[in-house]
From TrEMBL:
GO molecular function: ATP binding; DNA binding
Organism expressing this protein natively: Kyrpidia spormannii
Protein name: HTH-type transcriptional regulatory protein TyrR
Source organism phylogeny: Bacteria, Bacillati, Bacillota, Bacilli, Bacillales
Residue ranges annotated for the Sigma-54 factor interaction domain, each copy included: 379-608
GO BP terms in the entry: regulation of DNA-templated transcription
Pfam families linked to this entry: AAA_lid_14, HTH_50, PAS_4, PAS_8, Sigma54_activat
Boundaries of every PAC domain copy: 301-353
Keywords annotated in UniProt: Aromatic hydrocarbons catabolism, ATP-binding, Coiled coil, Nucleotide-binding, Transcription, Transcription regulation
Regions annotated as coiled coil: 344-371
InterPro entries: AAA+_ATPase (IPR003593), AAA_lid_NorR (IPR058031), Homeodomain-like_sf (IPR009057), HTH_TyrR (IPR030828), P-loop_NTPase (IPR027417), PAS (IPR000014), PAS-assoc_C (IPR000700), PAS-like_dom_sf (IPR035965)
Length: 693
């Protein structure tokens, strides 16, 4: 296509010419523009032909002043160098040898795309820089222009090898060239391309060729997937913002709100129902109650700031501002969150008040428990042995001396300790029971003496008061004192001697005023001699020893206790039972190795299982083991191998120990062997001497 083919004749007009006449003449010639000269300035009028002119405009002088626009005039030799000027104008005058002519922008663009003049070679460079493939064809499907990207996408080395019909199909090309239609988004899977087709029209409306725009299909799919991902993220972000209970703002460095949650905590007071997006966080009235100076500080210092703040409406707010920085460290956003902590602040205040009273409440509770203890475990006795014990209790309870209660398991050492507390001047103060055998050795020290804040991993953040401190002013009852580890005996000695404790992790002692009552069913003197118990601690505990006799040594108490337990348990289980003839005598004949505890368990079992209103001797006998009285070791009355005799004595001793202590660990300690040895030989002893077990 030659450049001269793009040029058209100029129709000149005067200001007094009739509008309708100009439209008719221009329409008959196919002109779009008419021109006139105002001094040195050329102006153009775009003619509205036919229906476009409208019927409401009367005939009259051509109103060029209101509808005209300045026109660029370019000498023809300068056209190749002023291409960008021509492309930026709707219409341009060209000064040719034949006089002034004009060219329209679309015609000039077609010329550039189809021209083979090397004076416009930079246009080809421009085409080659486009990231999509471009191919320009004439009506005969011959390639007249292209870029390198198109050749690479079609895997061709030169344009002469391009057969447009074989690549894209004659049907699509005919649809564009013959009918002038645009065809978009045609997928060619073999080449992996997406193609768009557009016709090229000359100034007279005729189609001179077509343009094909090629895009890499995987690249488009990747962009589509990326776009979907962005859309999904945006949808998720809106869902998150809609579900937040906190009020949230995303602010740019100038203070303009970019995003905001739907929750309204503060701004609802000033802008109820309005959207804060687009408003300025620093100047808009909707944010006047907020500490905006904090956000300015975050922008200036690029650091997170969190603070508790009370609004003018009495709302307690947790206000946080977090800077968002890009890779270069430049601040790009500030995220502001507001959380209503009014209720939380109120609860924290109430919690502090409760914590400040907790120690007093604990002490009062222990005092109440101590006062109720005699009703739960009343002392019942009739024997002379227990009468002597109780007279001793009455005397020692008036003094704060350390007391050591001795006796077999189940004789009622805790009941005696509570009786001392109830009769002492400390009766209104706490009675704290500590079972030294029930608390794991790893926790015993922290339970006894307490610990400070952060003393060890997993510790309570506020620290913990030890049992000795809980008993301050009252009595601490150390049951099974023989089971306390040697490592803690020195600290316990200090509590008794100095009346002070060092919490775990603490450096300063805490003064105490407690009376110690200890209890054990083992011989502490023997433990001292074997190195299992500190001698100095033993003497500190053994200030006032009280020996509580076993139940078998006070048979006159058995009937009285049985009557008391039956009355208590029938009331508990809502039954009407009474002892029959011979039942109490059967109870008195039994050895009671478990003492008072065993007696109560037997009575409870009878109350629950007896199917009549009278508990007879036969019911009692069925509840008690066959043997009454202590187990007798059979004597050796004939010669036998020494090894066999030794094994027999070992078995009988193990059975005796198990009968008394009911624990392989305790039996092993008494016999001076390992627990595994007792466990192994105990099974053999049962098989050899079944009548002893």
């Amino acid at each position: 296509m030659e450049f001269a083919q793009c040029l058209r004749e100029v129709r000149w007009v005067r200001g007094d010419e009739n509008v309708r006449q100009i439209e008719r003449e221009a329409g008959s010639q196919g002109d779009r523009y008419v021109f006139f000269k105002d001094g040195s300035l050329y102006k153009a009028l775009e003619i509205r032909i036919g229906a476009e002119a409208g019927a409401d405009e009367p005939d009259g002088a051509l109103r060029t002043c209101s509808r005209s626009f300045p026109v660029l005039c370019v000498p023809e030799p300068e056209v190749p160098y002023r291409t960008l000027d021509l492309l930026s104008e709707q219409v341009t005058l060209i000064d040719t040898d034949q006089g002034l002519q004009y060219v329209e922008r679309q015609d000039y663009l077609v010329y550039l795309l189809t021209c083979r003049d090397w004076n416009v070679d930079w246009i080809r460079l421009l085409l080659h820089s486009i990231p999509m493939g471009l191919i320009v064809c004439d009506r005969s499907r011959r390639v007249v222009n292209y870029n390198a990207k198109a050749l690479r996408m079609l895997k061709k080395s030169e344009a002469d090898s391009l057969n447009m019909a074989s690549i894209f199909g004659e049907q699509v090309l005919s649809q564009v060239v013959d009918r002038g239609e645009f065809v978009f988004n045609q997928v060619y899977m073999r080449e992996g391309l997406l193609a768009d087709f557009a016709p090229l029209q000359d100034h007279d409306g005729s189609i001179s060729g077509l343009v094909v725009v090629l895009q890499d299909l995987p690249h488009i799919e990747e962009m589509a997937m990326e776009l979907d991902k962005v859309k999904n993220l945006n949808r998720d972000l809106h869902a998150v913002l809609a579900s937040l209970c906190d009020e949230l703002f995303v602010i740019d460095p100038d203070g303009v709100v970019i995003r905001a949650s739907q929750s309204k905590i503060i701004t609802a007071n000033h802008a109820a129902g309005s959207d804060p997006v687009g408003r300025n966080f620093f100047s808009d009235e909707a944010f006047s109650d907020l500490p905006t100076d904090v956000v300015r500080l975050v922008i200036g210092q690029k650091r997170r700031i969190s603070m508790e703040w009370e609004s003018g409406h009495g709302v307690h707010i947790l206000f946080e501002a977090n800077p968002v920085l890009d890779e270069s460290g430049r601040l790009v956003r500030v995220v502001v969150t507001l959380r209503d902590i009014t209720e939380t602040s109120k609860l924290k205040k109430e919690l502090k008040e409760v914590q400040s009273q907790s120690v007093r409440y604990k002490r009062e509770l222990e005092a109440l428990r101590s006062r109720l203890a005699p009703e739960r475990d009343p002392l019942v006795w009739a024997s002379t042995a227990m009468d002597q014990v109780m007279r001793q209790v009455e005397r020692v309870s008036q003094y704060p001396s350390t007391i050591l209660l001795l006796g077999e398991s189940g004789v009622g050492k805790e009941v005696i300790a509570r009786a001392i507390h109830e009769r002492s001047p400390r009766r209104e103060r706490p009675f704290v029971k500590i079972n030294c055998a029930a608390i794991p050795e790893s926790l015993l020290e922290s339970e006894l003496f307490g610990y400070t804040r952060g003393a060890f991993t997993g510790a309570n953040a506020q620290g913990k008061m030890g049992l000795f401190e809980q008993g301050d002013g009252g009595i601490v009852f150390l049951d099974e004192i023989s089971e306390i580890p040697l490592s803690l005996q020195a600290k316990l000695l200090r509590v008794i001697q100095e009346k002070e404790v060092y919490p775990v992790g603490g450096v300063h002692p805490r003064q105490l005023d407690v009376q110690i009552i200890a209890a054990t069913n083992r011989n502490l003197r023997e433990m001292v001699e074997s190195g299992q118990f500190r001698e100095d601690l033993y003497y500190r505990l053994n200030v006032i020893p009280i020996e509580i006799p076993p139940l078998r040594h006070r048979p006159e108490d058995i009937s009285l206790l049985a009557l008391h337990f039956l009355q208590e348990l029938t009331r508990k289980y809502e039954r009407e039972l009474r002892w029959g003839k011979g039942a109490l005598e059967s109870l008195r004949r039994y050895n009671w190795p478990g003492n008072v505890r065993e007696l109560r368990n037997v009575v409870e079992r009878l109350v629950v299982t007896c199917d009549s209103d009278v508990i007879e001797a036969v019911h009692v006998e069925s509840m008690l083991p066959a043997r009454r009285g202590p187990v007798k070791v059979s004597a050796i009355d004939d010669i036998m191998p020494l090894r066999e005799a030794t094994e027999m004595v070992e078995d009988q001793l193990i059975l005796l120990a198990m009968r008394r202590y009911h624990s392989t660990t305790k039996a092993a300690r008494v016999l001076g062997v390992s627990q595994s040895t007792v466990s192994r030989k105990f099974q053999k002893a049962i098989q050899r001497f079944p009548d002893l077990w």
